[in-house]
Amino acid sequence: MDPNTHAVNPSPPLTPQMLVLADPHINRASQKVHKNRPAGSYVRQLLQRDYWIIQNSQPVFAFGTLENHDKRLKGGTGWTVQVALDKGLHVLIFDIPTLACTVPFITTSARTKGTTLM
User: Fold this and answer.
1) How far is residue 113's CA from residue 5's CA, in Å, rounded to a whole number?
2) Terminal-to-terminal C-alpha distance of the chain
3) Contact by Cβ (8 Å): 23, 17
4) Which end of the chain, C or N, has fewer beta carbons within 10 A?
5) Domain that includes residue 108, residue range
6) Would you say residue 49 lies in a domain?
7) How far apart are CA 72 and CA 65, in angstroms?
8) Is 34 helix (H, G, I), strand (E, B) or coil?
9) Quick check: is 20 in a domain?
10) pLDDT tens digits, one per residue of 78-111
């Protein structure tokens, strides 16, 4: 190993009890992104893990693809951004296809009923 580099100390694995603590945040995000909470345990665990990844992050940098119609991030990244916004974290989004960086804002319009990314 190069003496000028430092080994990264991995975080300890998340316990089942820790994973379950993310569920209320995932449930709230599911309402705001208008998607059903994942039924499968694998996808649910990915979202639970993402909750813990952003837990002590400031700001949150999200890289993904914005959906054109609603201007929402696709996939699990969109869920994680919503959880971060619900926690009051500062979020910066980089839309990979357009190479654009944006900051989400919260809207109260009846059409979206949640977070719209602009």
Assistant:
1) 47
2) 44
3) no
4) N
5) 16-116
6) yes
7) 8
8) coil
9) yes
10) 889 999 999 989 889 888 888 888 887 654 333 4
Residue 115 has pLDDT above 50, yes or no: no
Whole-angstrom Cα distance, residue 29 to residue 4? 42
- For residue 71, being part of any structural domain is answered with yes
In the structure encoding, which two tokens stand for residue 100, read together? 């654009």
What is the domain count for the chain?
1
Placement of tokens 């309402």 in the chain: 31
Please state whether the predicted TM-score (pTM) of the whole model is above 0.85.
Answer: no
Strand 105-106 with 100-102, pairing: unpaired
CB atoms within 10 A of CB 76: 15
CA quadruple 95, 100, 103, 105: dihedral, nearest 10: -70
Q: What is the band of 66 on the pLDDT scale with cuts at 50, 70, 90?
A: confident
The number of residues making up the chain comes to: 118
Using the predicted structure, report yes or no on whether residue 37 has a pLDDT greater than 50.
yes
Q: How far apart are CA 22 and CA 100, in angstroms?
A: 30
Among residues 59, 52, 61, which one has the least CA distance to residue 25?
Answer: 52
